[in-house]
Design brief:
With 159 residues, the protein is of the alpha+beta class. The chain has two domains: 101 residues, no CATH class; 54 residues. Helices cover 40% and strands 21% of the residues. It contains four helices and ten strands. The strands form four sheets. The chain has a four-stranded mixed sheet. The protein has a two-stranded antiparallel sheet with strand order 2-3. The protein is extended, with a radius of gyration of 20 Å.
Length: 159
């Protein structure tokens, strides 16, 4: 199944000028007259829901076909660095108690140990949207077209 996927046309970007107070970046882009995913879920039938899920999966599958692979041992230090940065902010969360923090630390250690034991498994490397969630998709259910936007977090890594 091939999904029709588009992105909005970007007309311009306004950033604060040198010496100005840093504020919001304004992106002037094409208006997309589609619906958000929550509207589709509430207002359309199972066939449209299944199409939407298949389309989202096809985006990921397509990007994976364009990726290259590297051995896990080559990228594992990046995994450790990201895990460490997350573990450092856990105690600052007002939503987690000490028991939960301890549990997350233990699970993270188990996960990292598991992957350290598999140094040669291939890891896909390629473009990553960085925030591919349903809130960053608009849907035209009539023409079955999906519009993806918010590429501000796009990066080229796998971890």
């Amino acid at each position: 199944m091939a999904a029709i996927i588009s992105t909005p046309e970007i007309y311009g970007i306004k950033v604060p000028k040198a010496g100005e107070v840093m504020g919001n970046i304004v992106v002037d882009m094409e208006y997309i007259p589609f619906h958000d995913v929550s509207h589709i879920v509430l207002e359309y039938d199972k066939a449209i829901h299944e199409w939407l899920i298949e389309s989202a999966i096809s985006i990921v599958d397509y990007e994976l076909t364009k990726s290259m692979t590297r051995a896990l041992k080559d990228v594992l230090p990046d995994f450790h660095a990201k895990a460490q940065s997350l573990l450092e902010v856990l105690p600052k969360s007002p939503f987690l108690n000490e028991t939960e923090i301890k549990l997350i630390r233990g699970q993270t250690t188990l996960m990292l140990d598991h992957f350290a034991a598999l140094p040669d498994i291939p890891v896909p490397m390629g473009n990553c949207h960085g925030d591919l969630i349903f809130q960053n998709m608009l849907v035209d259910p009539v023409n079955r077209e999906l519009c993806v936007f918010d590429f501000l977090d796009t990066f080229l890594v796998s971890v």
